[in-house]
Amino acid sequence: MGKLNIHEIWDRVGATVGGFVYRKTPFFGESLEALPLRDVVGKTSAEVEDIKPGNWKTVKARGPAGVFSCSYLVYRWIWSELPTLIYIHGSGESPANFGRFSDNSFNKIFTRDFPLDINLVLIRAPFHEGSQAEYIKALGKLNNYVGMLASSVAVLDSLARHFREEGCSEVLGAGFSLGGWVLNLHRAFIGEGIDRYIPICAGTRPEEVFISSHYRKLVGEKARDNPEVLKNVLNFEKEFKSNPKQDCFPLLFQYDLLTEMKTQAPAFGGMDLKVLKKGHFAGQQAINEMREHIIFSINR
Fold first, then answer.
1. Is 179 within 8 Å of 284 (Cβ atoms)?
2. N or C, where is the chain less crowded by C-beta within 10 Å?
């Protein structure tokens, strides 16, 4: 093994600390029972009711994985005929906390120094209304992870359809980490209603995050010992690659030891993949670069 750079060291330390802190509530440590994403995403539905700005709206998503509660916020609504960007946050963030030091990537990217006159909407995934510990505990069940992803896709799709009916010139999707998985799932299993997908730090093999990356330190022993179960439930690379549209503008981090280039980049063959020379935790703080990538992708 070659010499690690500072980005990879930070990722190793972060995964080790997380594995210790949440050692009693590991991912998927409670149950591995879950239907595959390919059997859940297209059969999960949600219906949004209004687009009044300024207040969080709760919406229930229903599907084979169960009923899950999501929320969305129309943060800025200028005019119905303008492009509308729907953003999905990262795993474990606090999307409703707009404090200066909050873990809220939407707040950092869009509420300051974002120059485009577009409508902005934020989706809050299930299990992100409480604490980080509550979120980790919920993901003790693989079914909750599947349901969280599928429900977020359903809300994203419902919002996209709603905005098209409102006359929006374009509907755009952007998301970091968890949000990126949601976007890629929508493209793989629905593939219409969104003009441009901008996934950051995500690919089509989420199982590899829990099987082969340093994040496996946060995963339950039974799940680590049954990688074929996680692959069957979570992998959607084939479906994503079967979509021939040139509508995806991904961003990955070269030294990321959690969402690794070697496992996630192959799905983006033939696409305009951008790469930052960052690791996972350093990449999370690369707000200017992420903002620039989103703006560049919108203006293409």
1. no
2. N
- CA 87, CA 297: separation in Å to the nearest integer? 14
Host H or E run for residue 199? strand 196-200
Residue position matching structure tokens 């995050």: 209
Cα separation, 98 vs 96, in Å, equals 6
Reported in sequence order, the residue ranges of 82-118 that DSSP labels E, i.e. its strands, are 84-88
Q: Are 44 and 22 in contact (CB under 8 A)?
A: no
Enumerate the β-bridge partners of residue 121.
74, 86
25-65 per-position pLDDT tens digit: 899 999 999 999 999 999 999 999 888 898 999 999 999 99
Which residue is it, tokens 């600390």?
17
Tokens of 282: 């350093």
pTM of this prediction?
0.95
73 beta partners: 56, 122
36 close to 232: Cβ distance less than 8 angstroms: yes
CB 237: neighbour CB atoms within 10 A? 16
Length of the chain in terms of residues written: 300
The answer to whether 198 and 170 have CB atoms below 8 angstroms apart is no
Contacts of 191 (CB under 8 A, 6+ apart): 243, 245
Say what the pLDDT of residue 10 is: 62
Using DSSP bridges, classify how beta strands 119-124 and 66-76 pair: parallel, antiparallel or unpaired: antiparallel
Interatomic CA distance for residues 252 and 176, integer angstroms:
10
Q: What is the DSSP string of 225-272?
A: T-HHHHHHHH--HHHHHT---S-B--EEETT-SSS-HHHHGGGGTTS-
CB 286 within 8 A of CB 276: yes
Yes or no: say if 159 and 123 are a contact pair by the CB < 8 Å rule: yes
